[in-house]
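Review this chain:
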Amino acid sequence: MKHLIREAVLYSAASGIALAVDVGMLWLLVEQAGVHYLLAATIAFLAGTAVVYGLSVSAIFRHRRVQDRRVEFGAFAAIGVLGLLVNLTVLKIAVDGLGAHYLIGKLASIFFTFSLNFGLRRTLLFSAPSKPAD
């Protein structure tokens, strides 16, 4: 339990850094480059995913279930795609459905995306294998 709490706290901090990259890029792409908010959100989310992967494997999780780093990153990214779908869905509902500003929609998506990504990544990629019962 102590490891889970440590990992959750560190993953939260890494997610905060990745979120800063994500939101910063989202704002720059929409406001400065004139990119449509959903395309900008996709690009920014992927940049944030790269940041949190680097931090996850270097500083957060002690265990790694997948030995091949290319396969591990592929699975990490696949989970990220699920998170991206949640992110874009919440963002679209907030902006197009409720008339909210895209940054408010982004804030609304954070909890859902974080919960999904942390839970799946820790369970599938960064937890110790189960020990067989004697």
In short: Residues 2-124 form one domain. The longest helix spans residues 2-32.
